């Protein structure tokens, strides 16, 4: 098991006193603080293994999506901030390949504003294999059917789509989730 950086984001496995629930902490990091954190890696491994006996997956706290201070659904948020056609194509593909997801799309994407962002998780190999098989089966088909934007932000389309699909997958499969706060590292050495 190895702790990895995801755009300077880390799960906060150790010190919950730093964190208010459902918040992201921004931490000023230097070599000394980082070294102390890594020295506690055995504690982190022990906690992770214990959690995974009771939970299917460890995720960052889910977030609520808003636009102009009003809650909006995952579908609405995607269509407002990204390319709506890409979303529609993705939903069409899911319904073609996985028709049993139809009710879950309505419930968890069209009528829900809770989302697991960041594409970060810790789980066992079976979960990773099952999820990735499902996800990439969809994304490879999406890739065949959409046009890619010249906008550098929208070129990250598959990352944005996969965050939403991850949330759908978690809820549809009724997985037991352990939510943890994140640390965002402000200065990286």
TrEMBL record:
* InterPro entries reported for this sequence: DUF4422
The organism's superkingdom is given as Bacteria
Pfam families assigned to the protein according to its UniProt record, in alphabetical order:
DUF4422
Q: Show where the DUF4422 domain sits.
A: 6-173
What protein does this entry describe? Answer: DUF4422 domain-containing protein
Q: Which organism is it from?
A: Flavobacterium ardleyense
């Amino acid at each position: 098991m190895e702790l990895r950086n995801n755009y300077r984001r880390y799960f906060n496995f150790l010190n919950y006193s730093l964190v208010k629930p459902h918040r992201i902490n921004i931490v000023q990091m230097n070599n000394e603080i980082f070294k102390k954190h890594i020295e506690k890696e055995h504690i982190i491994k022990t906690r992770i293994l214990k959690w995974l006996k009771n939970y299917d997956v460890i995720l960052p706290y889910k977030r609520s999506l808003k636009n102009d201070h009003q809650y909006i659904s995952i579908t609405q948020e995607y269509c407002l901030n990204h390319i709506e056609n890409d979303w529609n194509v993705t939903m069409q593909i899911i319904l073609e390949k996985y028709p049993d997801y139809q009710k879950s799309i309505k419930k968890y994407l069209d009528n829900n504003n809770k989302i697991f962002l960041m594409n970060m998780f810790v789980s066992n190999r079976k979960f990773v294999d099952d999820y990735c098989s499902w996800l990439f089966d969809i994304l490879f088909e999406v890739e065949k059917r959409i046009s890619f934007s010249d906008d550098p932000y929208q070129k990250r389309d598959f990352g944005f789509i996969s965050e939403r699909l991850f949330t759908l997958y978690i809820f549809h499969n009724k997985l037991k989730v352990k939510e943890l706060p994140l640390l965002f590292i402000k200065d990286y050495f």
